[in-house]
Specification:
The structure holds two protein chains of two kinds.
Chain A: H1 3-19, H2 26-56, H3 68-80, H4 83-115, H5 117-131, H6 139-146, H7 150-174, H8 178-186, H9 191-226, H10 234-243, H11 247-275, H12 277-284
Chain B: E1 4-17, E2 26-39, E3 43-47, H1 54-62, E4 69-74, E5 77-78, E6 86-89, H2 101-112, H3 116-129, H4 145-158, E7 163-167, H5 175-192, E8 195-199, H6 203-209, E9 212-216, E10 223-228, H7 243-270, H8 280-283, H9 309-312, H10 321-324
Helix pairs in contact in B: 2-3, 2-4, 3-4, 6-7
Classes of the chains: A mainly alpha, B alpha/beta.
The complex binds adenosine-5'-triphosphate and magnesium ion (MG).
């Protein structure tokens, strides 16, 4: 029963291949992919094996760390009862909403700050202070102001996701090769067109790196937020299971979070690649 | 003076220099009352010691910066900003890396507002002109240096400027590629009748390409002398080995040698004068100091090197930020 350890990996690679098209050479690619999957899952398989045997051999207390198979049984039970879907749904809704809002606000703001120097000078001290304040440290503040409901959780995710996106967007805009700007200006492009045709496309890869980082953050901080005053969500599940000594359920929740994190990251990596082929190729050669 | 396509009328340019540990704040005079006319359809080459203000001259003409004194006239009217009547070909190609060769050539056409339907034909025509028809769909990172420079030339030609400004466009290329691009450029110039202002470090290149060669003094840059190049029959098998070619090469080399000496004695006591990293110009030179220190003999065909001039050019990447914002 090791297949669960492989599931996120498979889902991820499937997503990656789906995104990177190139249909004609599919069979050969799949073959090569099989070998690569095996190679890259070796460590995971080992982990699964150790997890399964160590508690059984009494190397660790199986009350606190039940064998993997028991955890997986608990996981299937949660899946069957529909509880898992409910918790996953609650968590994903929150983190995707927060992430989406962060993308919608931080990218335009970053573009503005990166492009318009007076604004950058005005805001940079503020940005320095806030980005060095751990998001989780602000959780109590969010709860205090926005209450225990969805708003405070989504707001926390939004806050945490905004920084990597904002900072990467600023860096992306500032990092545009000045020569490209000179060249475009020499062709008489006005500011708006310059922005649209040179600055923005040049910054896209850097911006996407920010979005990918934010994707990881969105799940990290959400789980923590859900441990406080939530009635659904994976963080809640883990906390609640631990509280009621349903240890396999707790681990099931943890595994699910890792899986989601992996899938989200792989998806975003694939998207990032698509948007920056011209750059990926440069760094690869 | 109305016969001039381009006229630099007592043009001066000074750059403010911020105070550093070694020097006080002040100003560098890059150009000092430069007066130079370029005729319609002429191929004019500008040579001069490193740092004498050649690129500055071109920037002023391109409308990318404004003169501190005097004025630059194109067709009798003062240059007030960049325009599609002048196309610049930069040494470092300046191609948009996310666009294909065709996309890059189309860029200037988009800027000009050429309708989409007409663009494709113009792009194909100009890629053909520079011999890159088969590479329309390649991205810049898939092209060699020579190919990139051809794309850049095609891009500038495509939007059909009257004047082509070229700042050491072939300096980063190997000798063979440079030779073939030179021939191609002459062919294109003859075919299109454009006015070309071409900046170079290579004396051979200057003699080979120019109808006239303007030799500049070391900083502050002035026009030292303008030489008419007469190579007789250009169709000769190997132009470079003719007496006329050798004569002109020696002539220019002698003029430049004096300037390089002057630059040396001027720079020695005062140590490196300009604050390093201030110059936006330097950012462009990043890695390519190729040829600047090359052979000093008349046969080397290169400008004698000024010691220290290269060190100045070790452009700190930080300098790039200075210009990242245009607004
Ligand atoms: N933005 C700037 N700020 C300060 N000084 C500058 C700036 N741009 C150019 N200069 C100075 O003006 C002088 C002329 O520079 P320019 O780039 O025109 O020289 P150049 O003749 O093109 O040199 P090279 O042949 O090495 O390219 C240099 O001494 C340089 O220090
Ligand atoms: Mg220059």
């Amino acid at each position: 029963m090791v297949d669960i350890a492989e599931r996120p990996r498979l889902a991820a690679t499937a997503a990656a291949t789906a995104a990177t098209d190139a249909a004609p050479r599919l069979p050969r690619r799949l073959l090569g992919l099989g070998g690569r999957v095996l190679h890259r899952t070796a460590a995971l398989l080992t982990l699964a094996l150790v997890w399964e045997t160590a508690p059984r051999l009494g190397l660790v207390d199986r009350v606190f760390l039940p064998p993997l198979s028991e955890v997986l049984l608990g996981w299937t039970a949660l899946l069957r009862s529909g509880q898992l879907a409910e918790h996953v749904g609650a968590s994903l809704t929150r983190s995707l909403t927060g992430l989406g809002l962060a993308v919608l606000t931080a990218i335009p703001l970053g573009l503005l700050i990166g492009w318009y120097r007076p604004l950058a000078e005005l805001l940079s001290p503020l940005l320095e202070v806030f980005r060095n304040t751990a998001a989780l440290a602000l959780l109590p503040v969010f709860v205090l102001i926005l209450g225990l409901g969805e708003t405070s959780k989504i707001a926390l995710v939004l806050y945490a996701c905004s920084w990597p996106i904002l900072l990467n967007t600023i860096a992306g805009v500032k990092g545009v090769d000045p020569l490209l700007i000179r060249s475009a200006r020499s062709m008489g492009l006005n500011h708006l067109r310059l922005f649209q045709k040179v600055i923005l496309p040049a910054a896209v890869p850097t911006i996407f790196t920010g979005v990918r980082l934010a994707g990881a953050y969105s799940i990290l901080v959400l789980v923590a937020a859900e441990m406080v005053g939530a009635k659904a969500g994976l963080g809640y599940l883990i906390n609640y299971a631990q509280y009621n000594f349903a240890i396999p359920d707790m681990y099931a929740g943890i595994i699910t979070i890792s899986a989601i994190g992996l899938v989200v990251n792989q998806l975003l990596v694939a998207v990032e690649r698509r948007f920056s082929t011209w750059r990926v190729d440069v760094s690869a050669s | 003076m109305s016969t001039n396509k381009i006229l630099f009328d007592r043009v001066s340019k000074t750059f403010p220099v911020r105070a550093s540990r070694r020097s006080q704040a002040g100003a560098v005079t890059a150009l000092d009352r430069v007066t130079l006319g370029v005729r319609d359809g002429e191929f004019l080459v500008v040579v001069g010691p490193s740092g004498c203000g050649k690129s500055t001259l071109l920037d002023l003409l391109g409308g990318l910066s404004k003169p501190s004194g005097g004025q630059v006239l194109v067709d009798g009217e003062a240059v007030v900003g960049p325009g599609l009547d002048r196309g610049i070909v930069f040494q470092q190609y300046a191609l948009l890396p996310w666009r294909t060769a065709a996309g890059n050539v189309a860029f200037g056409l988009e800027a000009k507002g050429v309708p989409r339907a007409e663009r494709a034909d113009l792009v194909a025509y100009h890629l053909e002109l520079v011999g890159l028809s088969g590479f329309a769909d390649r991205h810049p990172h898939e092209l060699s240096g020579g190919m990139k420079q051809r794309v850049a030339i095609a891009r500038s030609l495509a939007y059909d400027p009257d004047i082509l400004l070229m700042d050491e466009p072939f300096a980063a290329l190997d000798a063979q590629t440079r030779d073939s691009l030179q021939d191609e450029l002459v062919r294109i110039w003859q075919a299109t009748g454009k006015t070309i202002v071409f900046i170079t470090h290579g004396i051979d290149e200057a003699v080979h390409l120019g109808q006239r060669v303007a030799v500049m003094t070391s900083r502050p840059g002035r026009i030292k002398q303008v030489i008419d190049i007469d190579l007789g029959d250009r169709a000769v098998e190997d132009v470079r080995s003719t007496d006329a070619f050798r004569h002109h090469r020696h002539q220019i080399w002698t003029l430049l040698r004096d300037e390089v000496r002057a630059a040396q004695s001027a720079e020695r006591p005062a140590a490196p004068a300009p604050a390093p990293g201030r110059s936006r110009r330097w950012a462009r030179y990043g890695t390519s100091t190729v040829g600047r220190t090359a052979g000093t003999g008349p046969d080397g065909g290169r400008i004698p090197a000024v010691p220290g001039a290269d060190a100045d050019r070790a452009a700190p990447a930080v300098a790039r930020h200075e210009e990242a914002r245009v607004g």
